[in-house]
Amino acid sequence: MPVYLWGATLFSRQGAARSISSHNLAALVGVNAWQIRKDFSYFGDFGTPGVGYNIATLIKHVKKILKLEAVQKAALVGVGNLGSALLAFPGFGVYSFQIAAAFDVDRRKIGKKKSGVVVEDAAKLHILKERKIRLGIIAVPEEAAQGITDKLVHAGVKGILNFSSRYISVPKKVKVINIDIAMDLARLPYYVPSD
Amino acid sequence: MPVYLWGATLFSRQGAARSISSHNLAALVGVNAWQIRKDFSYFGDFGTPGVGYNIATLIKHVKKILKLEAVQKAALVGVGNLGSALLAFPGFGVYSFQIAAAFDVDRRKIGKKKSGVVVEDAAKLHILKERKIRLGIIAVPEEAAQGITDKLVHAGVKGILNFSSRYISVPKKVKVINIDIAMDLARLPYYVPSD
DNA sequence: CTATGTGAATTTATTCACAGCA
DNA sequence: TGCTGTGAATAAATTCACATAG
Lengths: 195, 195
Prior knowledge:
Two copies of one chain form a homodimer. By secondary structure, chain A is an alpha/beta fold. Chain A folds into two domains: 64 residues, Arc Repressor Mutant, subunit A, CATH 1.10.10; 112 residues, Rossmann fold (3-Layer(aba) Sandwich). In chain A, 38% of the residues lie in helices and 19% in strands. Chain A contains nine helices and nine strands. In chain A, strands 5-6-4-3-7-8-9 form a seven-stranded mixed β-sheet. In chain A, a hairpin with a 2-residue loop joins strand 5 and strand 6. The model of chain A has no long low-confidence stretch (mean pLDDT 92). The first copy, chain A, binds a DNA duplex (22 and 22 nucleotides) through helix 3.
């Protein structure tokens, strides 16, 4: 589903058309047309036969499905290379996300602004509770990952995006999505013919 | 499959055991035990009943399946925040990857060393052909993504890991894996109970 | 007694084909 | 005529149960 939102947004910026057909969207994101129709029809019908899907309606529906109607605030922990890249990343807006806070342990970074966000002391993660931030992004060295996780959970965070290449354990109620950027690279040689 | 390699490697570093059972590995990576046995048995049997899988053998086999036996060289294009993070990323070794070259258009970066790799001029991407580097990593602003892609393809690159949030078109023979770090974040609210 | 490997059963996803609406 | 939405057919992946090996 997220990929459809991505495709629809892309199309809305590039094309002048008001609608997009399942075929066009399919070509854009790299799946089959019937796949898209099936997926959408599962959530109710919002396409127009003979025309396609109205882009604005489509984006609205998919956002609703993904529960992205309201802007979601997330807290970033770890403002190293990766963290900085995430802060500067322009793509979060598409998915109604905003990195509303950033934390680090490094005294030299605390208090400074990065991409419009002031870096705060990682020791003060508990304030996330007051600020009602419920999503956390972990971009710290792997040794620190579990410790930060525990703090995030304690601060009431309900969802964690984990960029450190280590397994983090959390209570059942908290959802973790692990992203190992190297793991994706590992899929490549399988498709590449060989030497 | 990549996740099994990840799990096995993790286990080998943390535990002192020589073998791992499907149950333990399953718990580590978050799938079912029979799932793992099925997946492995598809590629032939290399486990020992009553004991489990010998870790060294397991890692070797999975690497073979993923065609990761030899170290794979990859070229990074775009040494911004994200590119720097990738260069500094410690996890590539697990998957037998090595970022053997880095390119950028910024004159101030060219010639300087970053994480042990000298940044070269992106105009000279064609030298990848001579160096026999067949994998490319795109970490440039989205406007530049397609142009760099074309250059990579022209230089004989067979697989591309695309971190830019734009669709890139390539000849059929070239495999692209798209990674939109924001897209993964979009999956989170769906699992998080709501407000 | 423990843990693998695999046929069989079940569930889920993919693909097709086509009726129906603009 | 073009494109959606969906039931039916097909394929694939999950799950189970258990024979078998250490």
